[in-house]
Amino acid sequence: MRAAVQHKTGQETLDVLDGVQTVGFGPGKVRIRVRAAGLCHSDLSAMSGVLPQRAPLVPGHEGAGDVVEVGEGVTHVRPGDRVLICWLPPCGDCASCTRGQTHLCLAGLTNAAAPNFRHRSEDLYGFAGTGTFAEEVVVGAGCAVPIPDDVPYEIAALLGCGVTTGLGAVLNTAKVEPGASVAVIGCGGVGISAIQGAKVCGAARIVAVDPVASRREAALRFGATEAVAPEGLTDASSRVTSGEGFDYVFEVVGTSATTRTAYEATRRGGTLCVVGAGALDDHFRVSMFELFFDEKRILPSLYGGGDVRRSYDRAIALWRAGRVDLEGLITHRVPLARVNDAIEQMRTGEALRTWVML
Questions:
Q1: Is residue 83 within 8 Å of 62, Cβ to Cβ?
Q2: H or E element: which one contains 331?
Q3: What distance in Å separates the CA atoms of residue 37 and residue 20, rounded to the nearest whole number?
Q4: Dist. CA 3–CA 282, nearest whole Å
Q5: Rounded CA separation 287/285 (Å)
Q6: Within a 10 A sphere around the Cβ of 340, how many other Cβ atoms?
Q7: Among residues 131, 104, 275, which one has the least CA distance to residue 193?
Q8: Distance between CA 39 and CA 246 in Å, rounded?
Q9: pLDDT in single tens digits along all 358 residues of the chain
Q10: What is the longest distance spanned by two Cα atoms in the chain?
Q11: Between β-strands 82-85 and 144-146, what pairing exists: parallel, antiparallel or unpaired?
Q12: DSSP 14-67
């Protein structure tokens, strides 16, 4: 089969190779024929080394397809079933799962420590234990989540990370209240999903912040009441909040600099929700006095901050009801052979989400 491979961390392009094989199939595993895979900025972060990930690497962690084969003990899916790929599945038994924080379960990440593919004699690792930029993947049974027949593969793949992360940060983590003022810093696929979540919650004013004009224009289509470049945030806060600051600010970039900007844009007693995935050595600083005196809540949000299965179902229900636009998030489609076009579209900000069709 074919897969897109990064041979070493920092390599900016991928090689699409034939003759790649999946490895690790057996009890408790599922083999999936991938039909659609989305490129998320986290894939680029893994390629650059911002996120820790072993190489050689097959990127991709948003995907959906058909079950080809199931291992012994797998009963919730069977060959022919349509599934999305969950890169952080809950085990149901660990301390995080039993206390109801299933999104903090680390059992699924054990897949990332073992190779998922092999090319000739070389082991290849799938990003986050998946590696959806391949025609087939072998994943733990919990990673294979059945999807209804009316949900297209492209939409299902979106649910696998970007939509769940953005909507969940608003609905699960921050719990935005009706009538609130909201700012979203970073308007890629996850940020746009956060904007849609704020709209669903009934936020009165939603200010989108992004340096790319096309993304600001997209934010307005998806529910932002206005969109500004980063240098316009202070003026927007003055107009929208009379300079007090926003009730909720979502940082969807993943740097200490943008998180500091988001903190300063949050009103006293308001909520800063950190959604972007950043580097291990990039430290956000806040003084002990302002932490005490301003009483701003700082809430990180991993994978939407809630039970992912419930989040998938809720997103599908909102999509069916016309409350969120998921098709509109897919701005580009490329075949696997042109995966480097997708990478360039993400780097330049041209795309919200590019789908790699396999």
A1: no
A2: strand 330-335
A3: 17
A4: 32
A5: 7
A6: 15
A7: 275
A8: 31
A9: 999 999 999 999 999 999 999 999 999 999 999 999 999 889 999 999 999 999 999 999 999 999 999 999 999 999 999 999 999 999 989 999 999 999 899 887 777 788 999 999 999 999 999 999 999 999 999 999 999 999 999 999 999 999 999 999 999 999 999 999 999 999 999 999 999 999 999 999 999 999 999 999 999 999 999 999 999 999 999 999 999 999 999 999 999 999 999 999 999 999 999 999 999 999 999 999 999 999 999 999 999 998 999 999 999 999 999 999 999 999 888 999 999 999 999 888 888 877 677 7
A10: 63
A11: antiparallel
A12: -EEESSEEE---STTEEEEEEEEEEE-HHHHHHHHTSS---SSEE---EEEEEE
Indicate the residue type of 265: A
Nearest alpha-carbon partner for 115 in 65, 172, 58, 170:
58
Question: What are 215's two structure tokens?
Answer: 């993304």
